[in-house]
Amino acid sequence: MTRDPDHLLPSAEPVQLIDARGIAVGAGRADFPASPDLLRAYAALVVGRRFNEQAHALVRQGRLAVYPSSHGQEACQVAAAQVLAEGDWLFPTYRDAVAMVTRGVEPMETLTLLRGDWHSGYDPYRHRVAPQATPLATQLPHAVGVAHAARLRGEPTVVMALCGDGATSEGDFAEALNFAAVFAAPVVFFVQNNQYAISVPLARQSAAPSLAHKGIGFGVPGERVDGNDVAALLAVLGGAVARARAGGGPQLIEAHTYRVQAHTNADDAGRYRSSAEVEAWVTRDPITRTATYLRGAGLLDDDVQIGFDTEAERVATALRARASAVAEPDPARLFAHVFAAPTPQLREQAALVRDELSREVEV
Ligand SMILES: Cc1ncc(C[n+]2csc(CCOP(=O)(O)OP(=O)(O)O)c2C)c(N)n1
Ligand SMILES: [Mg+2]
To answer: Which pLDDT does position 336 carry in this prediction?
Structure first.
């Protein structure tokens, strides 16, 4: 059986509703976000940028082991969380702390893993946010499983599964898309194409016409969106969530964006990309363009901006305070929550650690 692939094709150009100058080029579209939604997204962008700056500073101060910043990608982060309903699930990667904060996870708890502490640091069920995945694309089959299970139970849950451009080369990406398409799982695969996988540029990652085209072979419709345009992201991701909730199956959305900072603090981005390239992307910043649009539309003034800045500062201050509080992790907790009932091997390992620690005290 052959199926007409035309309806699976992404649009020729990434969807854009507000351009880099802050002009609403898609104002006439029916899916242009409502003003309160845009203002809410803007407030979250301001918090997200401040969070990124503060986490970056904590690494430099030695209070955080590592931070993969989403500076420049905040519009993707905010929109991915904002289009979800309370009962939906978010499956984030190591770079998606801002999406998690927007979803409501306590900011410091999104950094627990990056502090080198135990397990994920937050209760995944509380906000329906899966543990951040560091092994690339491994979260995608899990996300599909959750979506499929919800559908079997007749629940209206939609799953937002995040990954990067590099992760689309992984086998898990292909397997997740295939299963989701065959079983019409209510999942949105959201690829933040920030142009690099550490030092590997997109041209060395994939020869596909676009990453959104990768859905075609699986029967998953693809779409491309300007990843620095929060209005377009809310429209496209919101549409994909609504479609999945209505039983329309999965969709693959590729956002074109840019990782403004190095991969992590352990990376020297100057070795593989030019500052001119970075500068060009900074002019497409997601926050300044949204602010320009909102001010022009009479939705944002200095007083409202001060309110948003104050909230961002409050989040940063709380982050600093919690990062400074010295938490001595209890080594015994390493063995908790691995299995519901500890296996004999785990009990044995826990006893070994206890024994080891008691000897250290004697020395
Ligand atoms: C399975 C696997 N292989 C390799 C790595 C090492 N690694 C960590 S991040 C990364 C690059 C990922 O790039 P991308 O998917 O584009 O996400 P980004 O970091 O740009 O957000 C690699 C190769 C890993 N974490 N997991
Ligand atoms: Mg990338």
So the answer is: 83
